[in-house]
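Consider the following input, taken from an annotated entry for DNA topoisomerase IV subunit B (Pseudomonas chlororaphis).
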Amino acid sequence: MRSGFALALLLWAGAVVAEPAPELKLLSEHAVEGMRGGNLSGLALCGNEMWTVSDRDDDRIYRLDTSDGKVWQAQALTIDVPEVPDNGLPWGLRSRIWAASFLRGGALDFEGISCDSAGNRYVVSEAYAAVLQVPPTGEASWLKIAPTMIRQARASGMLLHFNALFEGLAVSPAGDQLWLAAERERRGLLLIKRQQTVWDCDDNCVLLSEAGLEMQPAQFPKARPVSRDFADISLFNGKLFTLERNAFQVCRRDPQSARVERCWSFAAEALQDNRRYSQDYGLAEALVVDAEGAWIGLDNNDGPRADGEERPIVWRFAAPDGGWDAAP
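Applying the prediction step yields:
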């Protein structure tokens, strides 16, 4: 009776209690050394090279030397970042960003990285809801994004709160479509397309905007309902994959409608006793999906986990039985 009452209370509060998703199998884990600011916050596989960013470093991105099977070495590529253009974020949000940069560093708050088939890397600044393009050669530049995107996102309830703006991005191989993930309260997915010199929407930028709560996995200590969120996105084989940090899962979605097709959990592996952190929320921040599996990176905020490991971690999970295209 009590359990039934608790379930009813969660549903009344807007929490989502989903059926358990199949578990992904962990193949390996890799500590990352050499990131000046730590705080690994994005991953991208560009050809055969793995790249990452830190939300504490404004002047560099990192190529990961993965030749050592256990510990990966981050090699910095220094970039000269031009002044961020005004994209329509209100003054109140921008002033809080300016103040926070003095306390924690990382004024731009890089939170995701992706790349196209030409080798261009795209980095999203959560602080300014802007996207920086870093070409293989030449100078970095901010994409010219029509203010329509910010207006539509805010009208849909996204990008309203400090430190809850864009948390991930994915770009098409041709470099002509860009998906952005709004983190939380409300979380959402947006799509913009390159139209000559400006990136804009076909009509409506917003594919998804949703609020509500969902339960943390049963393995999480003192599991409770928390805000639905997105921590990163990855485009693979024509499908969009979302990293849903608080739910400890990866979900496959239709890239044009954002409709969920199937989800897989990584809670069983991530929440083993020796891998637990003291923070009361998920720490997965980075996602790359490929044919063989998924790479998931952790931003541990410089905090140690139960076994004492303090470095950023990247996990390698095997693809599910039947592959990522398997039907529900």
